[in-house]
Design brief:
Length: 183
């Protein structure tokens, strides 16, 4: 999906505590358009909270304990947390007849470990779980944590690594260091 840092993040949660995370939260990440690709809204549910049940899901079918749901203009896909067991639960009639090429290998579990080992041995292929990719994921997740902590919608300026609408968020971006631990 070529996502980078979100432009804004907002969260709702059960009671927040200074020392721990809340029991449950919902976090909305808003990603900007990327060239020809439209903006994306990604929603994270945790603590037993789940998205609304899709109407297309059969009466006896369950969402499951954890997983992913991709809702697009042409259909909806459910799968396990690591993308395993994908299941198409809705699709427009036009899309159902389109031929789609496979663009990614389907190697199964353990692929990240295999890629990492190959890279350690001097392999020429860059692992999918590389620092450039994981850094962007970590940035987005930490913004989600800040939105939960502050209880506010945060607008993010990635170039300057700054929340532009809430000065109090700086304490999470550049925390005060104890004496002897300065950078």
């Amino acid at each position: 999906m070529k996502l980078e840092a979100p432009t804004s993040v907002e969260a709702s949660s059960t009671e927040r505590h200074k020392e721990t995370y809340p029991r449950a939260s919902i976090i909305h990440f808003h990603f900007p358009a990327r060239g020809e690709l439209p903006p994306v809204r990604l929603t994270w549910y945790d603590g037993g909270l789940k998205p609304p049940r899709p109407d297309e899901l059969g009466a006896t079918e369950e969402l499951g304990e954890e997983g992913l749901m991709f809702i697009g203009d042409k259909g909806t896909i459910l799968c396990g947390f690591n993308g395993n067991n994908p299941k198409l639960i809705s699709m427009s009639p036009k899309t159902a007849t389109e031929e789609r090429p496979r663009t990614r290998s389907r190697t199964g579990g353990g692929q990240n470990v295999r890629e990492w080992l190959d890279a350690c041995k001097g392999g020429k292929t860059k692992p999918g779980a590389n620092f450039e990719f994981c850094g962007v994921v970590t940035e987005a997740l930490q913004l989600g944590n800040m939105a939960v902590r502050t209880g506010r919608r945060l607008t993010w300026d990635r170039a300057n690594l700054k929340v532009t609408n809430l000065a109090a968020a700086d304490q999470y971006i550049r925390p005060e260091r104890r004496a002897g631990w300065e950078l």
